[in-house]
Amino acid sequence: AEMGAYLTRRVRVVVSQGLESYAGTMLTFDVPPWRVVWVRDEQSLPVIVHETFHLVTRICADKGIAIRSHNERGENDDETAAYLLEFFVSALVKRWKRWV
Fold first, then answer.
1. Which residues pair with 83 in a beta bridge?
2. Listed residue (1, 60, 17, 18) closest to 35, CA to CA
3. Which of the two residues, 33 and 94, has the higher pLDDT score?
4. Do 40 and 61 contact (CB within 8 A), yes or no?
5. pTM for the complete prediction?
């Protein structure tokens, strides 16, 4: 409820109710900030990384970037997603260390 009220106030988006039982979620909106990663407990790094993975897959899908271990030529198609996840997790770990 707090997160929904904040997003409604801050960016004027409506968050559907029923998130009370979630440990976290990745929300998509039609307006900026477009996507929001939300977790119930900011100290739960595994949940934050889990939801960030969903964010990475959505960004890659938006940009037409395949996430496959190997393409038809046997080359890796998951490097872009891996680097993007690494970028986000690096930023998260720095912030997370300040939270705990």
1. none
2. 60
3. 94
4. no
5. 0.77
